[in-house]
Amino acid sequence: MAEWSRETLMALNQDDVIYVEVSSTWIEAISYDLKTSTVVVSSQHNRNDYVYYNRPFEDYLAFVNADSPGSFFNMYVRGRW
Question: CB under 8 Å to 54, separation ≥6 — which residues?
């Protein structure tokens, strides 16, 4: 498993969910449930949550560490996960 950054560990809550706010005009936050391997993308544009089940943790790390989370979403997530 990939090495966890200090920020990732600090974002881990009591329910084993990592919640990270990102710098994006479209995405507010990206969370990962360690128990269910679920990624939730929270949109600040339309206030919807997009839920993706059974995603490897490495996919989540790549997403939250992308230079542009919105571009990452459009290129790798939308219609593919």
Answer: 37, 38
- Fill in the DSSP letter of residue 2: P
Sign (positive or negative) of CA dihedral 73, 9, 37, 59 = positive
Q: List the domain boundaries for the chain.
A: 6-77
Q: Is the pTM of this model over 0.85?
A: no
Q: What is residue 1's three-state secondary structure?
A: coil
Helices (H), the chain: 6-11, 57-64, 69-72
- Taking only the tens place, the pLDDT of each residue in 64-78 is 889 999 999 999 999
